[in-house]
């Protein structure tokens, strides 16, 4: 038997009651952001909260992040709920009374909201544990913003052992508060981060023929690699390759002997993602050979395509409509942004839904990663009630 209407109503009541505490949690996280793999204070704070909620902390082999378990009063399946915990290296430019106190770090992608939601879910399910079937594993994952991310080592350490379904969320500043969005199958792009290093030969600027100009060659490399998108891939297949950083040169009158190009490639096709490193290397090497330069390519990190499971989405949709009424679920737009929640979905059923946090009246309509990013905190209620109800629904029936 799945979740009852009586239980669903109780979950919603408890979510309403938890909101003030969750806002307090969220503002604490927002004032004390920590970037990827440096989330030491954040981890310690989360540990205090989950222990206060009566959860059992499970040891992990990472320096930051935390896994905790809640055991229900009856035997059953295991579900998981994941939140990311890291911030971005962004200097906050809001006027919030609780703005970041850490110069050059900011929760500009909503991970502070994610943590508050998941802690709230843990609080609600903890109060209902006597009636709960099975176990719930809460994953507070570090380093989502910096590939290769924290999901891979956690999975290698057994965080998904016996987990039959996992739920995750991501705030969406393009979606009004009170709405969520879902999409079956491929939803977010793969990430292939790479460095291309052009090795030339230095010399005097007045005699370029005596050297091999790494800067001029690097310009050819950029143009050649962009032609992978234009001429090597089916034009119906979404693909973007971006170079975000170029390093090279020492003086205006010296032929540069080394240039480093830092890039990222995104696609919605798992098959194309596997081909991309070879295509990029071939194009870049050809440009280098034409200029007598040498190419070095390093694959830095990658995330797979994120693909949501329809059964998990069905549980989310059913419970959201039952909790908040019809007409409030939209279809998530395809994006080439990456998310290492995708790694969990390669191993077990699950889904990541988008939580609307947009409220133009309070200026909560700025894009992700903006120094002016903020959210409507009322959205915390919607995410908390949805995940709590969906976990119970899955454990008490749902899919297997």
Estimated share of beta-strand residues: 25-35%
Reading the helices and strands in chain order gives: HHEEEHEHEEEEEHEEEHEEHEHEH
Largest sheet: 8 strands, mixed
Distance between the termini: 13 Å
Secondary-structure class: alpha/beta
Question: Spatial order of the strands in the main sheet?
Answer: 1-2-4-3-5-16-6-15
Q: Provide mean pLDDT, rounded.
A: 97
Q: What is the β-strand count?
A: 16
- As for the CATH topology of the largest domain, it is Aminopeptidase
Just give the CATH class of the largest domain.
Alpha Beta
Known CATH architecture of the largest domain: 3-Layer(aba) Sandwich
CATH superfamily of the largest domain: Zn peptidases
Tertiary shape: elongated
Tally the helices.
9
Characterize the structure shown.
The chain has 400 residues and is of the alpha/beta class. The model has no long low-confidence stretch (mean pLDDT 97). The strands form four sheets. An eight-stranded mixed β-sheet has the order 1-2-4-3-5-16-6-15. A four-stranded antiparallel β-sheet has the order 10-12-8-13, with helices on one face. A two-stranded antiparallel ribbon has the order 7-14. It has nine helices and 16 strands. Strand 1 and strand 2 (66-71) form a beta hairpin. The protein starts with a helix and ends in a 5-residue tail after the last helix. It folds into two domains: 5-187 and 305-395, Zn peptidases (Aminopeptidase); 190-303, Alpha-Beta Plaits (2-Layer Sandwich), CATH 3.30.70. Helix 7 crosses helix 9 (379-395).
